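To: structure desk
From: M.T.
Subject: fold request, one chain
Message: Could you run this one when you get a chance? Sequence is below, nothing fancy, just the single chain.
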Amino acid sequence: MANYDWRALEPYFIDGQTNYFGHRHASVQYIINDIVNDSRQFGRQDWTVYWNTFEHENEGEMAYDSVNAYVVIEEPGVRTHRALERLTIGYSGDPNAVHGITIHSLTLKVLR
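Reply: Done. C-alpha cells follow.
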C-alpha cells in the first residue's frame, strides 16, 4: 500500500466483496482506481510500523490483523500529512483464491 502497488493486492480481492476503507462492496476496479488516483495526488509515503501493537483475532471463518503505524505522506505543493494510524485487514482462508486467502476488508483509523 505504501508503494501504491495495486497489482500486488488485486489477486486477494473478490469483485464486489470488499469493504475498502468504508466503501462497502467495492469492485476491484474501484480499488485499483482509488490506489492509482492516490499515487497521482500523494507523493512518497514513509511508514513506521509498531509491531508490538500487532493483534490477530479470529471471528468465525474471518481473521483480523491490526497494527499501528506512524505514517508520513507528502502531498506535493500542498502539505505533508502525519498521523498515527491503525490499519486492520479482515480476511478468510479460501483454497480457490490465488494465494489461499481473500481480503474482505481494509480499514484505517486515525489515532492522532
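Reply (cont.): The chain has one domain: 6-110. Let me know if you need anything else for the meeting.
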